[in-house]
Amino acid sequence: MHIGIDLGTTFCCVAFIDEGIPQVIPDNRGRNITPSVIWFDGKTAYVGEEANKKKITVFAPIFEFFKRDMGKPTEEMPGKPEFAPYEIGGTKYGAIGMSAILLRKLKRDAWQYFKKRKLIEESTKESEFNIEAVITVPAYFGDEERNATKFAGEIAGLNVINIINEPTAASLTFGISLKENKKILVFDLGGGTLDVTILEIINGDSFKVIATDGNTQLGGKDWDELIIGYLKEKFKKETNSEIPDERFYDLQQLAIQAKKDLSESEETTVFLSDNGFDLEIKLFRSAPPTKNVIQLDVKSNAERPFYFDERSSKLLSASKERCSTVLKASNLSWEEIDEIVLAGGSCRMPMISDMLERESKKTIKKHREGFSYDTAIAIGAAISGQSKGRIEDVAPKSIGVKLVNSKQIAFIDHLIYKNTTLPAKARKQYLTDPYAVLEIYEGESKEPLECAPLGKLELENTGDKATIMLEVNQDGILKVLADYQPEGIKETKINGSAAFPDHLKEKIQSITIIS
Ligand code: ADP
Ligand code: MG
Description:
The protein is of the alpha+beta class. The chain has helices spanning 49-57, 95-116, 143-155, 166-175, 220-239, 248-264, 308-311, 313-330, 350-360, 376-386, 502-510; strands spanning 2-7, 11-18, 21-24, 34-35, 37-40, 44-47, 62-64, 86-88, 91-93, 132-137, 159-165, 182-189, 194-202, 206-215, 267-274, 277-284, 306-307, 339-343, 390-392, 399-404, 410-416, 424-431, 437-442, 452-458, 465-472, 478-484, 488-493, 512-514. The protein is globular.
């Protein structure tokens, strides 16, 4: 038996295959999704909704959006201490530790659910619950981030059998029952990130990623901030006083609720009280259609009401831009895309499907049988664990070797390019010092500082030239080889070269989790 886990930036979901039928595993309160939020004091961790509750009463230490830091060097990974991690009770944790805590809670939910359903022995202890898991990651996650995710799963006591891409998972859920071939564009807008991927589904059992790209700084949170900004501005205007910082959480909750209301109806009212003032603030989904003449009441200095669509124009443009980039990378036009598949909670905002319909001149099916924006990815992960289907992926980032030019300026010589079909291989001969250290980077820039270091390969006694070979296998695992005489082939496996320290692992495993 295995489970599929969508380890999201803002929400997680777990699923499994129940006698051939994909099912969501509800959490201990019967909900389908768990907020990726942790309140943690070093000994006890409140996870999910319980951590959110803590936000109201206690300000810190709350951890969220840590998925954005996945794979960044932390003190959790030896030799890479540049990134300042979270210090709690004298120990430093990073995104891996936080994700492991979250995964421990998800694993516990699965354990409880399986016991209740009698799928495992009633007497099975949590520590004895061995389960295989497929965890999803954004398609643009590189080698480092994938490894970090795998580590987190292992620390949480999961047997991670595979890491697959979120859009691939969504398309498995969508395409597993398809008979015909289709090219689809998966538009996944979550809480903090946007991920656009074009895939080809062949006979419902072969999934080939053609191109993918993401924006790690664009998500539901940015739409929340538009509303928060307006509420603050309006409060100041009406009362001549500021909403205090301690009320940020309330304000955020009001804004999120208003955003969700506007997904359902044309207008909503936010009731905001502070400092003896009670305000009713009206928000509208879209501006009324203008006739030939726009009339503005100049004398009364009437401000423009809050029209959500209108105020989101920059965010919508950024989303649109990402689609164009991926279409360009795939050498396809909108006409050649058979279907647009929406995933991620933020796609519930009607302005998203409206924008995509305008751009693509296609009709988007908003309701699909057995497909929900919140659970599609976890279900796809569960399906992939048993799938006979073939998944063909592409390199999410370009990979290259750091070199120095004649002016002694370092640059990256890319050997494998982003969106190359996997498995991919490249080789090139370089003039080297006999004892050079070759550094391998991933990223699109020529500038090493803008790329992420993956690892180093030490050469010994090469003479003056060496042939470097890079290989990325089907699962995205990179291998680097150097071939030179008289040493023959020297091989290094970049992946998994850093080990997660045992003392931290034990610490995370001993934390009491409350949810
Ligand atoms: P992630 O993949 O980032 O973990 P999800 O795909 O679950 O997250 O999406 C979460 C985002 O979806 C949040 O920003 C949340 O506010 C937003 N969201 C959820 N429901 C709605 C809705 N009805 N209308 C608008 N946004 C929504
Ligand atoms: Mg997601």
